[in-house]
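can u pls check wat happens w/ heme C
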Amino acid sequence: MRFLLLLFSTLLLIHAENSYESGKALYMQKSCYSCHGSKAEGMHMYPSLANRAKGYLAYKLKRFRDKISDNQQQDMMIAFAVGLSDKDIEDLTTYLYEYADEENEQRYDDSYHTHGDGGS
Ligand code: HEC
């Protein structure tokens, strides 16, 4: 029984890992990064997607896929969502929800603060 549990949780972990990696690849392939940023940080009118609630992201992507948008700005998303399968959405939202900035992790420094308006 314990072995089965261990096996099951290992499989779950592997699944989560693969889903993150596939989501990351899709995010690049489907050019999501060109609007939402290569770190899913968002820019201008394009919302940040990193570490947002997975359920919400999936809900929005499925609505866009069904060609439903709440305003004219969101219409833009429909073209990028129509081709997504349920698995694509699962992988993309896993990646976005669990997003971790690998490159900057090492350099992170608590004592550093930016001042001013960030150059806008
Ligand atoms: C051409 C630019 C563009 C591309 C490419 C694009 N998006 Fe978007 N995305 C938008 C805009 C614009 C909105 C709507 C912003 C708003 O609600 O005002 C949006 C909204 C979203 C939302 C809802 C966010 C929220 O806060 O409601 C999600 C999730 C999302 N995009 C995911 C993706 C994914 C995944 C991809 C790649 C498959 C992608 N987008 C590609 C422009 C883009």
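The mean pLDDT is 87.
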